[in-house]
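hiii, so i know i said id send this last week but things got crazy w the move. better late than never?? heres the sequnce for the chain we talked about at the cafe, plus the structure i predicted for it. fair warning i was half asleep when i ran it
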Amino acid sequence: QVQLVESGGGSVQPGGSLRLSCAASEYSSSSNAVAWFRQAPGKEREAVAYIYRDDGVTFYADSVKGRFTISQDNAKKTVYLQMNSLKLEDTAMYYCAAARSWRALESQSGDVFWGQGTQVTVSS
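okay and structure toks below
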């Protein structure tokens, strides 16, 4: 069972930056894909970005492309989400999740591991 712990959320003004961290208790083939999701009140959960740990392939949602960067430090078993030029609409609870592949994450099939979430609030 992989445990994920997010940190780094907080409150910022529009245009500000935050870096979220997702620390894993272990890495294995069952957690090769790590993604950040977010969910705002009254809205559906949205995939923000994901990364494949073995080859570093990344994906970004159009809404964050050019502003957010997902990266990893495998020695620390940690995936980061650098968020720049934050907008009001980025306000949400951010969760990291891990699974064997993005397809498994997207379909929530097989073993999917979730963190507890970290709140990001962008307000003026």
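btw Helices lie at 102-107. thought thatd interest u
miss u guys!!
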